[in-house]
TrEMBL record:
Binds 1 Mg(2+) ion per subunit. ATP binds at residues 24-29, 130, 166. It is an enzyme of class 2 (transferase). It holds the Pfam family SKI. This is Shikimate kinase. It comes from Gallionella capsiferriformans (strain ES-2). Catalyzes the specific phosphorylation of the 3-hydroxyl group of shikimic acid using ATP as a cosubstrate. The gene is aroK. The lineage of its organism: Bacteria, Pseudomonadati, Pseudomonadota, Betaproteobacteria, Nitrosomonadales. GO terms for biological process: amino acid biosynthetic process; aromatic amino acid family biosynthetic process; chorismate biosynthetic process. Mg(2+) binds at residue 28. Its main location: cytoplasm. GO terms for molecular function: ATP binding; magnesium ion binding; shikimate kinase activity.
């Protein structure tokens, strides 16, 4: 499926850029400035879910558990990926469902923002809006999730972008070059 001519055509011609990666990898932060730089519309699947339900993600996890949230995430992604010229920041767990991976892969260039556990921890340790990290040992939880998910991020990604010490702006400019290169090599 993934490599059929129809799918690879839409992947690039949709103009969509889809960011995947762990909590704290910078999908929302990077997505916003990337969209501004490329004159695309920025959307965030977590924000879309909160907009659709009128409640916060922690509240959805409280009431419906993770399975309820995952269903809402799949519904939100399905509605978003059919649009064009988006920069779409996904939730950290968006790669877990095979149907999510298929729809992301078919409808945009997928970018994995890769970060190590220590950086992820530094960026998320004080945040209360990520239900999966409301645990005694955030560092260990991030390590566990990265271990479970890294192969899925890699599998779905067209571009893997390591994020480290450099500024978000410098990283964004690097990413713009990588995207251009990808488009040139895959037109
Ligand atoms: N490359 C970076 N260098 C330093 N700090 C960063 C970088 N990317 C993001 N951050 C910071 O990390 C925090 C988390 O980033 P962000 O919310 O964009 O992550 P996310 O990938 O969208 O996470 P989630 O999956 O939970 O939505 C923010 O405070 C942001 O400013
Ligand atoms: O990594 C995850 O599973 C999550 C990441 C966030 O973006 C939210 O989608 C939610 O907190 C779950
Ligand atoms: Mg985010």
């Amino acid at each position: 499926m993934q490599n059929s001519p129809t799918n690879s055509t839409r992947k690039i011609q949709s103009g969509n850029l889809i960011l995947v990666g762990m909590m704290g990898s910078g999908k929302t932060t990077m997505g916003r400035i990337l969209a501004r730089h490329l004159n695309k519309v920025f959307v965030d699947s977590d924000e879309e879910i909160q907009f659709r339900t009128g409640v916060t993600i922690p509240h959805i996890f409280d009431v419906e558990g993770e399975p309820g949230f995952r269903q809402r995430e799949t519904d939100a992604l399905a509605a978003l990926v059919v649009r064009n010229d988006l920069v779409l920041a996904t939730g950290g767990g968006a790669v877990l469902a095979p149907e999510n991976r298929a729809m992301m892969s078919e409808n945009g260039i997928v970018i994995y923002l890769k970060a190590n556990v220590h950086d992820l921890w530094l960026r998320t340790r004080n945040d209360r809006n990520r239900p999966l990290l409301q645990t005694g040992n955030v560092h260990a939880k991030l390590a566990e999730l990265l271990q479970q998910r890294n192969a899925l991020y890699q599998q779905v990604a067209d571009i893997v972008m390591p994020t480290g010490r450099q500024s978000v702006h410098a990283l964004m400019l690097k990413l713009v070059n990588e995207i251009e290169l990808y488009r040139k090599n895959n037109q």
